[in-house]
Specification:
The protein is mainly α and 212 residues long. Helix content is 71%, strand content 0%. The chain contains eight helices and no strands. The two termini are 27 Å apart.
């Protein structure tokens, strides 16, 4: 159970991470010719436009979650398969950028700790940067798993040769059930299969971005 101070710091970090993620999907689609997300009011950092209640609660409970998917209409794209890949990868990529920026701030604080230490505002800011690093890395790597409805399944579909596209269609059919089943299993047993997979990546990029 999170303590109240950590929860207060975590809420804006999660809301910002999710908002940037979904905005990036919509922005990339718009850049590729699809105005659907713009017309739906999703090209915004306002978290209210992006939040999925269940997905947000799951983030706090099991540290994996999702936002409300940005609407995309592939009929606007010149090359739907290729362009959907770019739209899909834009969300995780934006979280990696946020994680990198958070890591660079942490490196700066390590070199110049005096203004941040010994006062509540400075120490809270440091804690938020560490939370931002971890949350954005977890979101990026989790969403790149090739399991529908995660972004990684669309990336997989975008790179699969045509003769293997049936694999992606089967994943679309069974993937969501498998995903929720594994999340539920982790909640019941306390052992997260997802974290066993993405944890090493989060640790690696945390060290790479923020230093040992």
């Amino acid at each position: 159970m999170l303590d109240p101070r950590t929860l207060i710091l975590l809420i804006p970090v999660i809301l910002f991470a999710l908002s940037v993620h979904e905005l990036s999907h919509g922005w990339m689609a718009y850049r590729l010719g699809d105005p659907t997300a713009r017309n739906a009011g999703r090209l915004t950092l306002n978290p209210i436009a992006h939040l999925d209640p269940i997905g947000t609660i799951m983030l706090f409970l099991v540290h994996f979650g999702w936002a409300k998917p940005v609407p995309v209409d592939p009929r606007y794209f010149t090359n739907p398969k290729r362009d959907m890949l770019w739209v899909a990868i834009a969300g995780p990529a934006s979280n990696m950028v946020l994680a990198l920026l958070s890591g660079l701030v942490i490196r700066y604080i390590r070199l110049h700790p005096e203004p941040f230490m010994g006062n509540l505002v400075g120490e809270s800011f440091i804690a938020m940067m560490f939370l931002s690093l971890q949350i954005n890395l977890a979101l990026a790597i989790f969403n790149l798993l090739p399991v529908p409805p995660l972004d990684g399944s669309k990336v997989l579909f975008g790179i699969l040769p045509s003769e293997y596209e049936h694999i992606a269609y089967n994943l679309e059919r069974y993937g969501p059930g498998v995903l929720f089943g594994l999340v539920l299993l982790g909640m019941i047993t306390g052992v997260s299969i997802f974290w066993a997979f993405i944890g090493p990546f989060v640790g690696f990029f945390s060290s790479l971005f923020a230093g040992a």
